[in-house]
Amino acid sequence: MLLALWVTPGAARSEVGEVSDGRLRLRVAAPAHDDRANREACRYLARRLGVAPGRVGIAGGGSARRKTVRIADIDVASVRAGLGL
C-alpha cells in the first residue's frame, strides 16, 4: 500500500495530523538532518500500524516534505484504524 504524506520535521512529538490536499500530515520529533526525519516517520508509522519496521519505507520524496511511503502487506482498513482516520 502507498500512503501520501506531508511530513513536518522538528515537532515536539511525533503525531498524525489532518488530511490536507490529499496527503496525511505527519509531524515527527526528529530534525530534517541526516535522514533522521524519514527514519522517525517510518518507525512511527510502523508502531502505530503494528507492523515490523522493515515493512515501512520511503517510496518517493526522500528529501522533500511531500513523501510517498510504502507499507507492505497491509490493507486500507488496517491503516485507517491504526492511524485513527
Question: Which helices and strands appear, and what pairs or packs with what?
Answer:
Elements: E1 2-8, E2 15-20, E3 23-27, H1 36-49, E4 56-60, E5 66-71, H2 76-83
Parallel strand pairs: 1-3
Antiparallel strand pairs: 1-5, 2-3, 4-5
Number of domains: 1
Would you tell me the overall average pLDDT? 95
CATH second-level architecture: 2-Layer Sandwich
What's the count of strands?
Answer: 5
Spell out the helices and strands N to C: EEEHEEH
The geometry reads as globular
Strand pairing plus helix content: what structural class?
alpha+beta
Q: Name the CATH homologous superfamily.
A: YggU-like
What share of the residues lie within helices? Answer: 25-40%
Major sheet attributes: 5 strands, mixed
Query: Spans of 5+ residues with little confidence (pLDDT < 50)?
Result: none
Largest sheet: spatial strand order: 2-3-1-5-4
- CATH class equals Alpha Beta
Straight-line distance between termini:
16 Å
